[in-house]
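Here is the promised in-class demo. Please do not try to memorize the tokens; focus on the logic of going from shape to residues.
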């Protein structure tokens, strides 16, 4: 499925389940924000290879600026590099679209599933899958 087809499918699903007609640009922004949030969640979980491991971390109980933290296995050296906060930007765009179109959203931070759900009704933490998943 191409990106255009995925965006059109998302438009159709939101219209069918929420009776909200999103324009193509808004639906595409939701789809792309979901991809950004999914990748961010994967990087927060971290990854590694034979030479090192890396993950995104935040200071101040998860509220501070994000850092890419890399640990080299050969020297036990830890490097912290501040990175752009793509999560906050994606969530800001999603919030603007949802407010403009009378929708609610849920950001699911587990990287094993879809990262973004939208609905015409508020979604509690334990029942967010009633919303429309903004992933393919």
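The designed amino acids, position by position:
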């Amino acid at each position: 499925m191409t990106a255009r087809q995925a965006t059109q499918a998302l438009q159709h699903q939101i219209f069918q389940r929420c009776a909200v007609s999103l324009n193509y640009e808004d639906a595409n922004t939701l789809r792309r924000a979901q991809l950004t949030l999914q990748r961010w969640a994967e990087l927060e979980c971290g990854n590694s290879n034979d030479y090192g491991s890396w993950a995104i971390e935040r200071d101040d109980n998860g509220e501070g600026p994000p850092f890419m933290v890399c640990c080299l296995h050969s020297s036990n050296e830890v490097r912290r590099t501040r990175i752009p906060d793509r999560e906050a930007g994606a969530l800001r765009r999603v919030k603007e679209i949802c407010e403009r179109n009378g929708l609610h959203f849920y950001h699911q931070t587990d990287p094993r599933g879809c990262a973004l759900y939208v609905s015409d009704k508020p979604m509690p933490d334990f029942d967010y899958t009633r919303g429309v998943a903004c992933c393919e």
